[in-house]
Specification:
The complex is a heterodimer of chains A (about 140) and B (about 30). Chain A has about 140 residues and is mostly beta strands. In chain A, about 5% of the residues lie in helices and about 40% in strands. Chain A has one domain: Elongation Factor Tu (Ef-tu), domain 3, CATH 2.40.30. Chain A is built from 1 helix and 10 strands, in the order ββββββαββββ. The longest helix of chain A has 8 residues. The relative contact order of chain A is 0.24. With about 30 residues, chain B is mostly helical. Chain B has 1 helix and no strands. Classes of the chains: A mainly beta (about 140), B mainly alpha (about 30). At the A-B interface, helix 1, strand 7 and strand 8 of A face helix 1 of B.
Chain lengths: ~140, ~30
Amino acid sequence: MAIYLDNNVGLKIATVDLSVYITSITLTQTFDEVETTSMSSVAHQFYQGLEASTLQVDFLNDWAASQVCATLQAAYGTSVTAVIIPVKGVAVSATNPLYTQSILINNLTPIGTGGPADYAASSLTFTCTSEVVQTTSGSF
Amino acid sequence: MADQITPADIEVLKKLGLPIPTTTPNTKKDED
């Protein structure tokens, strides 16, 4: 088995490692379904269309130099590379693959959200502007 | 696929004042 506790996921955005600020992360691979239903079909038919994946990340806001807020603000309005690994610190392999994609930084919550009892945090969903590529070699 | 380091990534690093890697960990190219 190669199951992992979900407490050591690695994320780099534009090569900047923001892993320690993540409280939740979900990479959703999906593609458009293009309808190809035609005469004689007895059910709707679909083929694969364009990929339309998303990356959802909950960050603890950190305004320190080169950390979450500075990195995302610098990338705001551009598509940058996001690299994700299920278990950071463990070699890339078939059981610990890298996922690489471009993400459009099109939304930020620069002051974060939360109340008096909370640390400021940001829950952001980015659209992938490339396909999600899984690789089983290389390095994080 | 996305290259490991793109020009947009480099612009972010410049804004942050971080060194720009001279080599990329992943050498796969996106050129057909």
